[in-house]
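Filed under: proteins

Residues; backbone shape codes:
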Amino acid sequence: MAKILISSLGTGRRADGSYSKAKYEINKKIYETSFIADALNKYLDFDKIFLVGTRKSIWDEAYMVFGGEDEGYLEELYERKEEAKVDEQFLEKFKSTTSKGLEPIWGLQFKPNIS
């Protein structure tokens, strides 16, 4: 059975030019990272990770943390995020150039079903 993680991706908070990191302790081991999804992945080694975010989520930081190495794409991702212009088509490269099994999901519209 595949191990799957679904995690949200917020807008983050910058500190000293980069995003704030936290220390996550899992079974007495410390993982220092910007994303709990990264800490959980290092501990549990998921087969697939879904990152759910918006046009202004910190996709640029997620790209770096999850193994993206294309500097040009990273810069464009940062610029698009700052202008709230990240879209599904642009995130296709994100999906193909980061760690195995990473799936970005953005722009979901949730409509509660209240009876």
Observations:
- DSSP finds four helices and seven strands in the chain.
